[in-house]
Design a protein that fits this description.
heterotrimer; A: 577 residues; mainly alpha; Cytochrome Bc1 Complex, Chain C; two-stranded antiparallel sheet; 21 helices; disordered N terminus; disordered C terminus; B: 385 residues; alpha+beta; Rieske Iron-sulfur Protein; 3 domains; 15 strands; 15% strand; extended; transmembrane helix (chain B); disulfide bond (chain B); iron (chain B); 2Fe-2S (chain B)
């Protein structure tokens, strides 16, 4: 590895000779190493490990640090929160609820909000951090998917990431339910409805979870155990494993001069990355504190304690549960009564089928892609979304579906804020969730391909200078200049793609592919999908094509300039050439 | 040219002039390191250093202000207010945010301006292990398996798998006491407690009496409702009177408190509407279920169980705020819009001798969201109950 | 700091001696009697001034209201039989006072729901209109302050009313009007309006008369005292500080999610982009070093 003196020498006035602090550090390090052999460990993970720098690599970090903020603020809340559903008469500081009967969970939430200094801030920070935790995971997932960072060898980390998203959502929902206010109770009531709709075991699931009939007095303590112990434990373990794998695989990087599939280029862990990541922790923590201090989140005192007979307009789950809630709003009233039992499709489809299906689709996407492409190589250079048009289009379709379902979850708010009719919004969205993703797929795919064409144009003909020249015979043309070598290299630093030919495979072997009919069909499907995936893409030019094009462009430019030089218009914009 | 030259192994072995036949442009290699102003100009460097120190100092000031705010601003039943906002929350939040953000920004600024910014190159290694390691591990596994003799002893394998499988039973059975069994609990509500026959002991004598029919009470207020009190257009959110006055129905207070109360409310909550009697289109067999244009329906949505009471007086359409199922209250609670699959259950009502509204019986079908065992054929299970 | 003040949590303006409450009560009772004498519609021997009021009201009615509601408030039907303007024969003075007093009437354009807007009539004109419509038939009279004004309560009473009112509010009102009175959506483009910043009298009248598509909460449904409790609670909601910072319109989780994404994620992304961006470079070399 690089000697530290090398860096220090470029570090301006700071001399490389260790100062007193460094000496002390040395003593401490020696003391620790004598007992723990820490220096040996840095052979496995060097302190000068490289982490490439790019803003999009910080998205996962937002999630990570939000999780840390959640642990910190959560521990504070546990010191005051009482997860009990025993009924008490509220006698705290908040006048408008004094004397009202409520659970101890709700009473202690009010106590945190009104009688513990900074308690309300902590509650709000915890809740904001939860919303941001999941938002950041989702954005991080999109980044990883759209840049192809999920490819070998990172598929396992992709699966862990998807699992984290699911667990984070469940963790969020259980947390949302704990205060036992009207909003959280309404959410739990809906969850009870979801469970009861589950075929065969539904009613039993509900009775076992609630310790009897809804709502009972068990659900809050049980959710509490799940919320502060079970899921955080799993989250912590999975996040650790996720990070170990990031270290082991080394971070992906964007292609560019000097960057290859075999190396990783960037600042070292110690000190740059440590400083930036450490600094970013404080920034995430600070932003959360700012949100917590400035914006009211879940004013439980206004909702009052949960009462199954009360409800408020604008009863929504937190944003990450919004999309299944939206599907629940736009599903037609389908229920089947047959053989003495009830199939509640109006719950089964949006809640018990769609979210698990969406998660499964996410998890298998990398495997489907590698099956279609047959690409079993390791990939460490990222792809621009435009260079994988079909992949990008698939995500655009999924996101469109997600977004429209999400909008459906706020249809009542949309209705009052935009003066629309909820009925019409609902009818529109019923169609849009099906047509929207298809349109998004087609548009995104074509869009990506035309961006590829644009890139090809820049490579072959140079960039548009914006300089218009007029030739003596009256024609106008825009002058193109070649792009820099670095830029040109970056544009070409991607793989050539080949459409998989199902016939080709059979021909190569001389006989039909082994495996009989089934394999043949699979092969055909793969061929078709590969065509969809690659056939329309623009491939980078070969060296010869590039050479020809550049030669041609030079020639044209030269000719143009000659014409101008010999023509009457000597004062054209290019006269300084 | 590049500073990476002095770094580690021949990182840039790939590329650098040599043209892979298919590649249009050779990898030009890492560009030369360009210094930052702070690298070459001591004045700029000093300025950056001061900037970082100022940021850290600001953080310190915020921390102090946080402590000051903590002890200055009251919470409890008499908050300090600043600009209409709770002073404590806003002050603690902003000072904490300042204390944290200034540190974060300071460190980042330090890293960007002053710490060495040379990019270094590290070689990757494929994720898989060395072939020799792989062979050794496989060999170990093979030897280990052979020593167990697993392949030669199917009896052990099968009995072992069976035993482990059966261990799942205790695991599942152990959860049995998580809750009671559903039984027919979902089919009954506390409305059925009115008009039931019970045996009481009075003066040492057993006698059978009939509990009064369940009066309908105003929710939250708790008073029973005289039919003559309601005007056309009124909507009353109602509850069975037993929740407020259990002794009248020969029930204990403990039966309608805490979790019990919540459970009863989750099924018994009621919507009363008084409309023009002519507007009502009574369902078959429901001709005498209303009193003078007053109809009663379950308040619990048949979709996932939200309480619903968003009524449009002019159309008698009742909307659920959770998922917008809309029911026609003049037409047996029929679903006219939204995801709910069944009409709202209607409660047959009448008036008692004093003119108070009472339930004729329990609901004639299970209220609330659907569940698997819900048998459509038995919807009138409580007839005459 | 001028901005800084003690919260209205205890509602200092309600903190007055019990005698004050009694005085107000007596005054209220006296006024009730007086006002009743003035406005009671069924009063056969109405005074001259009452007759005059009705006469003024009729004139105003013919100019401003009769086009939709008919010359004698009998209502106007459209060609296909739907109502153009409903009959006002039995709506009572309270309905007129509410509709005109909140600017809902006269409507700017015919539509399914009249929005709250600038009031066009003066208080005297509204009183005249109310008197005229009340003279057409039955219907609730304009309530007097004793019925709806929470200021008439003593401090102890007030606290008790607020708690009770909150529970009644959550049981009867929040389903449509939302937990902060921010309003909500109703079927087919209808909406329950925002009820913050509304005159207590108008809230009381709205409950009593059920304007537009709202249900009525007649005195037999929610007794007057409980209506007053609801108003007291709404009063507290408006007067209490927002303990946790800005309230985001009081719309619940939807607006909170927007803040999480746009402010939270947006802010953090901005920091991320700044942190990872390239710093300024220079072509200058360090004096006499490196090379």
């Amino acid at each position: 590895m690089m000697k530290s003196a090398d860096v220090a020498s470029t570090n301006g006035t700071e001399p490389a000779t260790p100062k007193k602090g460094a000496k002390t550090a040395g003593v401490v390090a020696t003391w620790a190493d004598d007992r723990l052999g820490l220096a040996k460990a840095t052979k496995g993970m060097s302190l000068r490990k490289v982490f490439p720098d790019h803003w999009s690599f910080m998205l996962g970090e937002i999630a990570l640090w939000s999780f840390v903020v959640l642990l910190l603020t959560g521990v504070f809340l546990t010191l005051f929160f009482d997860p009990s559903m025993a009924e008490v008469q509220y006698n705290g500081s908040y006048d408008p609820l004094r004397g009202v009967h409520m659970s101890r969970a709700m009473a202690s939430t009010l106590e945190i909000s009104f009688d513990v200094r900074g308690g309300l801030l902590m509650r709000q920070m915890h809740h904001w951090a939860a919303m941001i935790f999941i938002a950041a995971m989702m954005i991080h997932l999109l980044r990883v998917y759209l840049t192809g960072a999920f490819r070998k060898p990172r598929e396992i980390n992709w699966i862990i990431g998807c699992t984290l998203l699911l667990l984070g959502t469940i963790e969020g929902f259980t947390g949302y339910s704990l205060p036992d206010d009207l909003l959280s109770g309404t959410g739990v009531r809906a969850a009870d409805g979801f469970m009861k709709a589950s075929p065969v075991i539904g009613t039993y699931m509900s009775f076992f979870l609630f310790g009897g009939e809804f709502p009972g007095d068990q659900i809050i303590p049980r959710f509490y155990a799940i919320h502060i112990l079970l899921i955080p434990g799993i989250l912590l373990a999975l996040i650790t494993f996720h990070l170990i794998l990031v270290v082991y695989h080394k971070h992906t990087q964007w292609p560019g001069p000097g960057k290859t599939e075999e190396n990783v280029v960037g600042p070292p862990l110690m000190p740059i990355y440590m400083a930036k990541a450490g600094g970013f922790f404080f920034i995430v923590f600070g932003m959360t504190a700012l949100l917590g201090g400035l914006f009211t989140l879940n004013p439980v005192w206004k909702f009052g304690p949960y009462d199954p007979s009360k409800v408020t307009a604008g009863s929504q789950p937190d944003w990450y549960m919004g999309w299944p809630d939206g599907l629940l709003r736009i599903i037609p009233p389908w229920e089947t009564h047959i053989w003495g039992v009830t199939f509640s499709w109006n719950i089964i489809l949006p809640i018990l089928v769609m979210p698990p299906l969406m998660l499964t689709v996410l998890i298998v996407l990398p495997f489907i892609e590698s099956w279609i492409t047959g690409d079993k190589r390791e990939h460490h250079l990222l792809q621009r979304p435009r260079n994988a048009p079909t992949r990008t289009a698939v995500m655009a379709a999924l996101i469109t579906f997600y977004g429209l379902s999400w909008a459906a979850g706020g249809n009542d708010i949309i209705a009052i804020k935009m003066h629309l009719s909820i009925n019409q919004i609902t009818y529109f969205l019923r169609g849009a969730v099906i047509i929207g993703p298809i349109l998004a797929f087609i548009i995104t795919r074509r869009w990506c391909i035309s961006l590829q064409r644009h890139d090809e144009g820049k490579l072959l003909h140079g960039y548009e200078t914006g300089v218009i020249v007029r030739s003596p015979d009256g024609g106008y043309a825009e002058k193109h200049l070649p792009i820099s070598e670095a830029a040109a290299y970056t544009l070409t630093a991607r793989d050539r793609e080949e459409v998989y030919s199902s016939n080709g495979a059979a021909d190569e072997a001389g006989v039909a592919a082994p495996g009989g009919k089934k394999a043949e069909i699979a092969n055909k499907v793969r061929g078709k999908l590969s065509e969809l995936m690659y056939a329309d893409n623009v491939q980078k030019p070969t060296a010869e094509e590039l050479h020809d094009a550049q030669h041609h462009a030079d020639h044209e430019l030269h000719e143009l300039e000659n014409q101008i030089a010999s023509g009457p218009n000597q004062h054209g914009p290019t006269s300084d050439h | 040219m590049t500073d990476s030259h002095d770094s580690i192994e021949p990182a840039d072995s790939h590329g650098h002039g040599e043209l892979v036949p298919d590649e249009p442009i050779a990898n030009p290699g890492l560009p030369a390191h360009e210094p930052r102003p702070t690298d070459v100009d001591p004045a700029k460097e000093k300025r950056a250093e001061i900037q970082v120190a100022v940021l850290f100092a600001l953080s310190g000031i915020c921390s102090v202000l946080f402590v000051v705010s903590y002890f200055t601003f009251d919470v409890g039943d008499n908050w300090h207010v600043v600009g209409g906002l709770g002073a404590s929350t806003v002050a603690l939040g902003s000072t904490l945010a300042g204390a944290l953000l200034f540190v974060g920004v300071g460190i980042t600024h330090w890293a960007r301006k002053l710490m060495g910014d040379h990019e270094i190159v590290e070689m990757r290694h494929p994720a898989y292990s060395e072939e020799s390691d792989r062979q050794r591990a496989l060999e170990d596994i093979k030897v280990g398996f052979e020593e167990t003799g697993i392949a030669r002893r199917p009896l052990i394998v099968f009995s072992g798998v069976g035993a482990l499988g059966l261990l799942g039973l205790p695991a599942v059975v152990y959860l049995r006491d998580l809750g009671t069994l559903p039984g027919d609990k979902l089919e009954h509500t506390i409305w059925g407690q009115g008009g039931r026959k019970i045996t009481i002991v009075e003066d040492g004598e057993e006698k059978e009496i009939t509990v009064p029919k369940m009066r309908i009470s105003r929710d939250a207020i708790g008073t029973p409702i005289l039919a003559s009190d309601l005007e056309i257009g009124d909507l009353v959110n109602a509850q069975p009177e037993v929740l407020f006055n259990p002794t009248r129905y020969y029930m204990e207070h403990a039966d309608v408190e805490g979790a019990e109360l919540q459970t009863h409310k989750s099924k018994a909550s009621l919507i009363l509407l008084r409309m023009e009697p002519g507007d009502i289109k009574p369902g078959k067999g429901r001709e005498d279920w209303d009193v003078n244009g007053i109809v009663a329906y379950s308040k619990i949505c048949t979709h996932v169980g939200c309480p619903i009471s968003l009524n449009e007086r002019t159309t008698h359409h009742l909307l659920c705020p959770c998922h917008q199922s809309t029911f026609d209250m003049a037409d047996s609670g029929r679903v006219i819009f939204g995801p709910a699959g069944r009409p709202l259950p209607q409660l047959p009502i009448e008036v008692d001798e004093q003119g108070y509204l009472v339930a004729q019986s329990d609901f004639t079908e299970p209220v609330g969201p659907s569940y698997w065992e819900r048998d459509y054929e038995r919807d009138r299970f409580a007839e005459g109950d | 700091m001028r901005l800084l003040n003690r919260s209205a949590g205890r509602l200092s303006r309600h903190r007055r001696g019990p005698i004050a409450g009694l005085v107000v009560l007596l005054l209220g009772l006296l006024m009730t009697g007086g006002l009743y004498a003035v406005f009671a519609p069924a009063q056969a021997d109405s005074t001259d001034s009452q007759e005059e009021l009705v006469k003024d009201g009729r004139e105003l009615f013919l100019v401003g209201c009769a086009f939709c509601h008919g010359q004698n408030g009998e209502g106007v039907l459209t060609q296909d039989g739907t109502q153009y303007g409903p009959a006002l024969t039995d709506v009572g003075a309270a309905a007129v006072d509410f509709q005109v007093g909140t600017g809902r009437m006269p409507m700017a354009t015919p539509g399914s729901q009249a929005p709250r807007k600038e009031v066009v009539y003066t208080d005297a004109e509204i009183a005249a209109l109310s008197a005229y419509v009340a003279s057409l038939g039955t219907g609730p009279a304009i309530p007097d302050a004793e019925l709806y004004d929470p200021d008439t309560l003593s401090s102890e009473e007030y606290d008790e009313y607020v708690v009770r009112g909150g529970q009644i509010f959550l049981a009867n009102c929040t389903a449509c009007h939302n937990f902060e009175g921010s309003g909500g959506a109703m079927p087919r483009g209808g909406y329950a309006p925002k009820i913050r910043g509304v005159d207590p009298k108008h809230i009381y009248e709205a409950m009593l008369t059920g304007p537009q598509s709202m249900d009525t909460f007649s005195d037999g449904n929610i007794p007057p005292d409980d209506k007053k409790a609801v108003i007291a609670y709404l009063n507290t909601l408006e007067e209490q500080p927002s303990y946790g910072g800005f309230t985001l319109g009081g719309l619940g989780p939807v607006s909170e999610g927007m803040i999480a994404w746009f402010v939270g994620m947006g802010g953090m992304l901005a920091f991320a982009i700044w942190g990872a961006s390239h710093t300024t470079r220079t072509s200058r070399k360090k004096d006499g070093a490196d090379a």
